[in-house]
Every structure is written in C-alpha cells, then in structure tokens.
Design brief:
about 170 residues; mainly alpha; 7 helices
C-alpha cells in the first residue's frame, strides 16, 4: 500500500503478540572469532564472477571484431567508402527478381534451343526466325569491364564484400 499524498505519516505496524518491544539477539560463542577473508594466492577462494568477457573466442570472431575496429579507425577514401553501404532490403529484392528473370539458360535449355535451331535450318528456315539467343546477365570481372569500356553495360551491380577491394575500385 502506498502512503497518502498528504504530509502526514502513517503509523508503524504494532509489534506481534508476545514479543512486545523485545528484540532477540543471537548469543555469540566467544571461542569463535570473525576474521576477514584473505583472497591472496593459496588463501581463500574468490567469490564467483561473470567471466563471459574472458572467453577464448573463435579466431573468426576475433578477426571480424578487429577488422570492424580497424575500419572505424581508418580514414577511408570515398571510392572505397561507397562499398560500406548496401541496398536496402526492398531494392535488393527487386534487383534479385530482375536478375532471376535474366538468369543464364541451363545446359538442358540451351540444348533444346539448339536442337530447334538445327531442325529449322534443316527444313530451310533461318535460325534467327526460330529462336533468338536470350538476353542474359553478364558476369565476371573481366567480361563486365569489357562491356563497360564498350558502353554496352546499362546496369552494373557490384557486391560490397569483394575481398581485394582494388579489383572493383577502378570500376
């Protein structure tokens, strides 16, 4: 229960029946002395502590923590700093949906397309009329660089976790 908000104090609860005002004191044995605990080497055992900070972490965890701290301390040039941001979730989902639409054809699909072309050519038609080569996503660093230099690339997606960052800085 909370006390009323006015300036008056609430009366203390009365003593229980039979113990009116008498406080019981433990009788101490005079032969037993209380001595302070000594936590020195080979002495008393120390109280339990939370040792979760003292864990021997796996090497990959230590490395990624050190890398994060080093990246925070470094002054990163703008050409490299742009790779620290990634697409937000919705835009990334749209990008992957687009890439999925233009994914390269499988071996079975290619074989089927080529057999259709071959039968069409044997019947005397032009192979371009039967099935055109599908538009696909181009990948691979050297291939993409060539497409950019020839001004053929309309959209270039660059991953943010390329390990030797120099590979994509010149893009």
């Amino acid at each position: 229960m909370k006390a009323p908000k006015s300036g008056k104090k609430v009366a203390a609860a009365p003593f229980p029946q039979g113990k009116a005002g008498v406080s019981k004191k433990n009788a101490k044995n005079p032969l037993i002395e209380r001595r302070p605990r000594n936590f020195g080497i080979g002495q008393d055992i120390q109280p339990r502590r939370n040792l979760s900070r003292m864990v021997r972490w796996p090497e990959y965890v230590r490395l990624q923590r050190q890398r994060k701290i080093l990246n925070m301390r470094l002054k990163v040039p703008p050409a490299i700093a742009q790779f620290s941001q990634v697409l937000d979730r919705n835009t990334a989902a749209q990008a992957f949906k687009l890439l999925n639409k233009y994914r390269p054809e499988t071996k079975a699909e290619k074989k089927e397309r080529l057999t259709k072309e071959a039968t069409a050519v044997s019947e005397g038609k032009k192979k371009e009329d039967v099935s055109k080569k599908p538009y696909t996503v181009k990948y691979g660093l050297n291939h993409v660089v060539g497409l950019i230099e020839n001004k053929k690339a309309s959209l270039v997606l660059i991953p943010n976790d390329v390990d030797p960052i120099e590979l994509v800085v010149f893009l």
